[in-house]
Amino acid sequence: MFKGLILIDNDQVDYSLALVDVVNRLAGEEETCVYGLGINLPEKVKGLDAVIQVNAPTIQPKDSRLTTDIIEQVHRKYQFDSIIILATEFGRMVAPRLAMRLEVGLVADITDIQVDKRGKKMIRPAFSGNIMASIVCESTPIMASVHPNVFQTADLTKEPEVIDFIPTDLKASSIEVLEVVESAESTVDIREADVIVSAGGGFTQPIDQLQDLADELTGVVAASKQLVDRKKAPREIQVGQSGKTVSPDLYIALGIYGSTQHIEGLKNVKEIISVNTDLGAPMNYLASLVVHGDAAEFARKLSTKLKG
C-alpha cells in the first residue's frame, strides 16, 4: 500500500485535490491510499480516501511554521510514502521547512512523473528551463512541490473518511499575518480563463494594447517570462514554469518563441494560434494555426476585424 499525503490549501482547494493524480502516478502499480490534510477547512472536500482535519480557530491557515509542525506530527503518526504540496508562495515556505525537519530531499516544481524499474522519477525543468531533468528521490517520504493546474484529477466524487487530529505542543507564531487587499484588476486569474491572449519577446508594443482584443474574445491577457523580466508585464499574468500553468480552450501566442520554460506552463490547451516572424519557433510546432508575420500588427488587425 502506497500512502500519500497532500496539503490542502484553503485558497486553492480544487488545485490541491488535483494532487491526488501525483500520488497515484508515484505509486505506479501499487495500491494507493491518499490522505488530505486540512487546517480549518472552509468546505467539505471529496476525491480522497481520507481527510485529516485540524480544527483550531486560533491557528492562522497561512502560518508556515505551525503548518510545518502539524504536518510533521501527522506524518510521525501515519508514516506516509509521499508528501505533496502546491508550489504557491505559501507552499514554497512550508515544503523546504518540512523537508529539513524530516531530513529528506525535496524536488520542487515537478511537471511529470515516470515510474519504471529504475525507480520513481520526477521531472522538472533545469538550467533556466532549457532541459528537463529526471530526479530519483531515494529518501522516504518522497517530497515534491507542484505548480497549480499542472496535474488534473477527473474523479473527485469519492466520499473520504474524516479523521479529526489534535496537534500537540504548538507554539504561537511570532509572525503577524497581514490581510492583503487586492485591487480589482488583480482578481482575474489567468488559470481560469477559456481564452488567453499572450505576448512574448517578439511583441513590440505595450502589452496593455492587447486588452481590447482580449475583451472581444471574452478572454484575458497574459505574458511570457521574457516580458516579465523586462518589467513590461506583471508577474501575476506570467505563463510558464516560474509563472502559472494554464489550460484554456484557445491560446493566442503573440511573438512567443516557445522555450521549454514556457511550454511547461501549457497543459491540455485545445487550440493554439501562434503568430511569429520566426517560422522555426518551437511554439509553431504546437500550434493548430501558424501566422507568419508581426504579432503586434496581427493583434491590431484582428481586434479591428472583430469589432466590425
Automatic annotation (TrEMBL):
Its cofactor is FAD. Gene3D superfamilies: HUPs, TPP-binding domain. Belongs to the ETF alpha-subunit/FixB family. Binds 1 FAD per dimer. Pfam families: ETF (PF01012), ETF_alpha (PF00766). InterPro entries: DHS-like_NAD/FAD-binding_dom, ETF_a/b_N, ETF_a/FixB, ETF_asu_C, Rossmann-like_a/b/a_fold. GO terms for molecular function: electron transfer activity; flavin adenine dinucleotide binding. It comes from the Bacteria. It comes from Enterococcus malodoratus ATCC 43197. Keywords: FAD, Flavoprotein. This is Electron transfer flavoprotein alpha/beta-subunit N-terminal domain-containing protein.
